[in-house]
Specification:
Length: about 375
């Protein structure tokens, strides 16, 4: 039996507090978006042909067979009376997805992703036939067609097989042509909104102050996510272009993210802890059973018996040390102190959870 014990003791601060790190300046365009400028998701259903025997089984995938028959009928080939004889495995039904970027114009090209919808085993080398791509409103915004490209492969023999990546998903670069635009009229609006990707009131205030200092009094904070821009009579696109390149120092909440499955810990630079002492010790109890046989003497009436023999070894881990972290240590101090105790990532996760339970971790602890 093996168990790890962690003891947390609050102590008086005997070391000076750590200095606060200065955040790096970033462009506004890297942390905020203009509301109304967004992409749209497209989806379509189509057929991939030209597969090398790795397509759908038509007897199992009824929708593939019906799609093939309907397509051939539109091309002037009627096989309704012979549909039971269709045995090809070079065709697969697929779902086609794409993202229509903002300001896409008629005739521009976008990338598409093709994924098997039936029991096809490999889409490599196939060709996607003309497939309309629709948005949530049901209108067709693009049409996809082209040769599939996949980085996956699979090979198998009589007793073994190997597969790398996902052979039932492929990609077509510039595989769809935009047929319908999504209108965006920023120039007609007098008020625009900048939306922070990570809502924070301090960051929003800094953004508004920087914009007002460089471009005049036009920005105001509506909430921790939104900064409003009053653009009455201004060149909208030119103003947005200048705003995007302005530099600010974003602020974030102190957060520690823990992934227990992989033993990964990610901590922000604003993480602080109160004065705390951490001691780690290992208690190892090893029990060994080595039974022995007891033989009776010659010409006696005794019987052979098995006698138990148990040995117990206890290791208290006396080599572990007590570490004391000063009040308000930075991320570097915290990790350095825990590393000084000789603990690994998984032990560090337990220590951080215990520090949070003691109320000494001044940050949000997110465990996944």
């Amino acid at each position: 039996m093996r168990a790890t014990l962690f003891f947390l003791l609050l102590a008086l601060s005997v070391l000076p507090t750590a200095s606060v790190a200065v955040a790096e300046s970033v462009r506004i365009k890297d942390i905020a978006d203009v509301e109304g400028i967004r992409s749209n998701q497209l989806i379509g259903y189509g057929l991939v042909v030209g597969l090398n025997g790795s397509g759908d089984r038509l007897n199992n995938s009824v929708f593939t067979r019906e799609t093939l028959i309907s397509m051939l009928e539109r091309l002037g080939v009627n096989i309704r009376d012979q549909e039971t004889k269709l045995q090809t495995r070079d065709i697969a039904a697929v779902m086609v997805t794409a993202e229509l970027p903002a300001f896409s114009h008629n005739g521009s090209h976008i990338d598409v992703t093709v994924s098997a919808a039936g029991d096809a085993t490999d889409l490599s080398g196939g060709t996607l036939l003309v497939t309309p791509l629709m948005a949530a409103d049901g209108d067709v915004y693009a049409v996809a067609q082209g040769q599939l490209v996949s980085s996956a492969f699979s090979a198998k023999g009589a007793a073994a097989s190997v597969t790398r990546n996902i052979p039932t998903s492929a990609h077509i670069a510039n595989g769809a042509i935009v047929e319908k635009e999504v209108p965006v009229s920023l120039g007609a609006q007098s008020v625009l909104h900048l939306s922070l990707r990570n809502p924070d009131l301090t960051t929003a205030e800094r953004m508004a102050n920087v914009i007002n200092a460089n471009l005049g009094d036009m920005a105001s904070v509506e909430d921790p996510r939104t900064v409003a821009l009053s653009l009455h009579g201004a060149d909208v696109m030119g103003t947005l272009g200048r705003i995007e390149d302005l530099l600010i120092q974003p602020d974030t909440r102190a957060t520690v993210v823990v992934d227990e499955a992989s033993g990964t810990i990610v901590m922000g630079d604003n993480v602080r802890i109160s004065t705390v002492a951490i001691a780690q010790g290992n208690l190892t109890i090893q029990v060994n059973e080595t039974p022995v046989a007891s033989q009776p003497g010659p010409f006696s009436n005794g019987q052979t018996a098995v006698l138990p023999r148990t040995s117990i070894k206890v290791d208290t881990g006396a080599g572990k040390r007590l570490g004391i972290l000063p009040a308000g240590p930075s991320l570097r101090d915290l990790v350095g102190g825990l590393n000084a105790l000789g603990v690994g990532p998984r032990d560090m996760i337990s220590i951080l959870q215990t520090i949070k339970a003691a109320g000494a971790l001044q940050a949000d602890l997110v465990v996944r």
